[in-house]
Amino acid sequence: MKKITILIPAYNEEEVLPQLHARLDKVLTNLANYDLEILFVNDGSRDRTLDIIKDLQKKDRRISYIDLSRNYGKEIAMIAGLDYATGDAVVIIDADLQDPPELIPQMVKYWEEGYDDVFAKRNSRRGETWFKKSTANIFYKLLQKFSKIPIQENTGDFRLLDRRCVNALKQLRETQRYTKGMFDWIGFNKKEILFDRDPRAAGKTKWNYLKLLDLAIEGITSFTTVPLRLSSLLGSIISICAFCYMMFIIFKTIIYGEPVQGYPSLMVIILFLGGIQLLSLGIIGEYIGRIFNETKRRPLYFVDEYNGKKV
Ligand code: UDP
Ligand code: MG
Question: How far is the CA of 252 from the centre of ligand 2 (A)?
Fold first, then answer.
């Protein structure tokens, strides 16, 4: 019998877990001819999430869980889950029921038809603000322009991955992860299904705009070096202009002499160049920071316990 793992990263989700389990349970009866595993990754929750998972496990033997040693963030929680998942396919789903579990049987159907990565694409983002929608839109457009691999728009982490994809993702051990890009980077047979994203069932979102900006910078710096290229391009354009201006000044001085003047132009040039230099340094720093973090080669996470056993 083939085995399917449902992977659920959870951080402070005490309010939705019972509801999530009830809905999953109903859906999973449609998958009776599969061996099932429901793998919770407790990402250092500070509420009763872990207790609730343990309670659920007593009632439902399909459940297993890993408890991370602290909050590492969703990206790390997902790779931890992939490391521990035992299924021939893994379905990643959010705990907050924004991703309807009812899509899982359809994903499995496509998987049986031979697709390796069946991802759910949002038709609409109900319950999200206009501002979040438009910033997300701009970000995807930019990333698309910059990077050489196609990155799916309006797609979250809700997807079914064949074992081949899981094994591929497990080999990408970078600490600063942009998983959404990785799904595209590894390739394999992809199939898209459309759905309407629901508002969160209960509890609060863990994202704020600062974190989203962070993720956006992560996405751009981990998948392209275009900003570096832009800063050198900007540098060369400015050098050429500066050279022309220099020639102009030299000839002007030779021909007309030089009564001391030019404070405004001097200031403008100094400030402008200073700004550009700082900007370029910032961009370079961004990449050096990444190099710094990756060269430490730290493990991505530590597990506190796996199914009740200390690790
Ligand atoms: N999550 C996590 N660790 C974190 C933040 C979030 O494991 O540090 C989980 C969270 O429990 C949920 C999923 O990631 O299952 C998506 O989080 P959320 O709903 O807050 O994000 P949004 O849907 O608003 O993008
Ligand atoms: Mg959510």
Answer: 64
